[in-house]
Design a protein that fits this description.
The protein is built from five helices and no strands. By secondary structure, the protein is an all-alpha fold. The longest helix is centred in the first third of the chain and has 13 residues. It starts with 5 loop residues before the first helix and ends with a helix.
Length: 91
């Protein structure tokens, strides 16, 4: 019996590529300072949330931390970029 990898399940559920799914799981892990949650736990958490669309990796990590699923220190949140139009207006 073939086991479905967490990255395959996320790719299928949210209609993204395998590579994007693997990258996403890695970014969730990197959102934590030292202890990294396993991919299986991240997948179980996402499935339990019944999300209609995929949030950012940091948002997932923050939710996992806030709910006590993975109670380890988070890195600082990455910068949030606005629309590309704002970047075009820079000198």
């Amino acid at each position: 019996m073939d086991k479905i990898k967490p990255s395959e399940k996320i790719a299928s559920q949210f209609q993204i590529s395998q590579e994007s799914s693997k990258y996403f799981l890695g970014r969730v892990q990197k959102s934590f300072k030292t202890e990294k949650p396993p991919h299986k736990l991240i997948l179980e958490f996402i499935e339990a949330q019944k999300l209609e669309f995929l949030l950012t990796p940091y948002e997932i990590a923050s939710m996992m931390n806030g709910s006590g699923v993975w109670d380890y220190a988070l890195n600082t949140a990455p910068p949030i970029f606005e629309d590309d139009e704002d970047l075009d207006e820079l000198p």
